[in-house]
Amino acid sequence: MEKGISKPSILVVADDFTGANDAGVSLAQVGHTVDVAFETPYRGDASVWVINSDSRAMDPKQAAMKMTSLMRHLPMANNPPLMIKKIDSTLRGNIGAEIEALMRACGLTGAVVAPAFPQAGRTTVDGECRVNGVRLTETEFASDPKTPVMSARITDIIRLQTAITCQPVTVSQLSHLSCEQPWIGVMDAQTDNDLDRIAAAVMQAKQPLLLVGSAGICNAVARRSAIMPPRTVLAIIGSMSEIAQQQIATLHSHPRTTKIYVDVEHILAGDASGYGVRIAQALQKGDHCIVHTCTDSVARHHIDTLCQRWQMSRTALGEKICQFLGELTRQVLLHATPDALYLSGGDVAMATASALGASGFRIRRNVAQCVPYGHFLGGVWSRPVMTKAGGFGDETTLRQVLNFIEEKMSE
């Protein structure tokens, strides 16, 4: 690339190529131009540079020298970029040596270490790295053939390769840590919200800090530095099947999902005017909005009670709910514009199509198991639509749908 050297707003240093890509992809998805460089000096005009040091399997001294050499050729003076040291979420590699070398090369006195990646089952609890709830030393990563891990305690791993003071810290303690003596702080995180708070604290700190973490912390930085608005899905789930409820439940760790329960009693009583406003507000703030009419499997057994109380058949009850959800969707779309609709339950999908004035459906492809993707023909909604029979798919189906809209639809 022959363009002159620019200064990126975010500079990431990763210790292997796949890790570099994992670090950069979430930043690219929110509008940044992201380049992964294999060597320095590097000439480019991307807003994010990810430098692959390829140093994970080196000995600590070599890895530190590689960090120093890389930084010598990068533009750091005068308004330096946000510095991120991308590490493996299971602590493999030369973490302590590389943190110290980068701190010295960049003139930074503080480093915040948050290796958690909750979406991949990696969390940090009481200073220990856990994989799906199991201590790291009790997993296969402890016996990695190239870079085995000897402890689950993050401070112990870092102290093996640096004499810089390393201790557990909290977000509230960051502003009180010394600017005179170098320090490394390790932070617990079990959810994406925890990582969001850590990223925010580092990005807003008075003095520049080195942010150290896995793809999880890079995702948190992406959420706080988005150039374009995040893609959103309005999911209307009328199915009461157990698998549909499991699909909703798996979204508990998703960082930007709002679930809105529509009480069938309100629908039948004609007292449901507030739902549309809440749904539109969720979409407008950039959340996926999951609208559902069933709280758990127990609710399925209350249908007969509802029918008796309102003196209507099961068929009539179902039609009433579906018509309400279809009209609710139409009203919401007058005030908010999600990037796609997800309609779970055949009757709900048909009622929504009717409310939107559609005359047919053109199928494009499958998004996930049993989830066709396409567009309505005619009517007032021309953006993507995904449909799913209520009892189909597995517990990951809805998450796959959200991932498709967030990641692949922009390709």
TrEMBL record:
Family statement: Belongs to the four-carbon acid sugar kinase family.
Domain Four-carbon acid sugar kinase N-terminal: 10-220
GO molecular function terms attached to this record: kinase activity
UniProt protein name: D-threonate kinase
NCBIfam families linked: ThrnKinDtnkGamma (NF047819)
Keyword Kinase part of the UniProt annotation: yes
Record-listed E.C. numbers: 2.7.1.219
Keywords: ATP-binding, Carbohydrate metabolism, Kinase, Nucleotide-binding, Transferase
Domain of life: Bacteria
Residue span(s) of domain Four-carbon acid sugar kinase nucleotide binding: 234-398
Originating species: Pseudocitrobacter corydidari
UniProt KW Zinc keyword: no
